[in-house]
Amino acid sequence: MLAAIDQGLIYAVLALGVFLTFRILNFADLTVDASFTTGGGTAAVLISNGVSPYVATLAGLLAGAAAGGVTAFLHVVCRIDPLLASILTMLGLYSINLRIMGGPNIPLLNRTTLFSPLLQQRLIGTWVSVAILALVALALKFAIDWFLATDFGLAVMATGDNPAMAASFGVNSGRTKTIALMLANGLVGLCGALMAQYSGFADIGGGTGLILVGLASVILGGALLGTRYMFLTTLGVVVGSVAYRLVIFFALKAPFLKAQDMKVISAVIVVIALVISQSKRIRELVGKFSISRKRDDIPEPMTVVPNPFSPLASIDATTTAVVDGGDN
Q1: Count of CB atoms situated within 10 Å of the CB of 97
Q2: End-to-end CA distance of the chain
Q3: Distance (Å, whole) CA 260 – CA 168
Q4: Rounded distance, CA 185 to CA 37, Å?
Q5: Domain with 120 in it
Q6: CB–CB of 53/114 below 8 Å?
Q7: What is the reported pLDDT for 321?
Q8: What is the pLDDT of residues 55-102, one digit of tens each?
Q9: What pTM value is reported for the model?
Q10: What's the total number of domains in the chain?
Q11: How many CA atoms lie within 13 A of 203 on its CB side?
Q12: 309, part of any domain
């Protein structure tokens, strides 16, 4: 079970990237399935050639960001529909990933990776590895919280909410979309690099269907912690990723399910999460146990009587108040 939590925390990095595109930017980005492999394959090739795992992990992040930049170019410059642009990038990256990796699979056995110290001490799948990966996931979560609180982050949110309104306020929607897509896919590439080192190999099909993993994590996190506050929303993405992996772990324990059924289980989890998020009764039931629920015991704020002598008050109101005061 601890190994499943480990994987959930690693995939939380991918889920944070999906959160940026689908929830913040409102961009249907399917580049995730390919940029994950791009990041993992790039890191695996560099590590297998003796490059430092830290440099290789950074290269995986940059490779994923470059994949996001291609999608942004097709959409912003070439005026291609967001969904179609991401599909074209995903298809093209399959061949590029094969070129990068030189084959369908790259083993990292007996290679120094970020997880080599934990492997040597037999700490993978223990509370030590869980704590370390949790710190990494939370650090990225806080970084995204900080980014979304900046002026540019607010511009990205405005672009995703209403592009026309954002443009009327002078926001360059093309630039915000490009940087947000590169940042999101950079996180996905980082996740691919980490997962390749954790599992000990990089595979050309490793990213297939991962968009479902990201969506399930985002939706489950929203159902568990709510979406009223950005702090809890991003935390919910991390919690949702771990919850998703735990559901997969326990589901595969059933005697009638096998590892080959994982994609079906993933699809069912997404369907259930979508039904929960769209059902008013279920949302109200879940909201009663959510830590972000509205509290009924908090009194309403007192009504403040406007000051008639305020500079913002009308002349008529001020005159009336003076006359009434003089009569009394």
Answers
A1: 26
A2: 77
A3: 50
A4: 11
A5: 2-206
A6: yes
A7: 46
A8: 999 999 999 999 999 999 999 999 999 999 999 999 999 999 999 998
A9: 0.83
A10: 1
A11: 9
A12: no
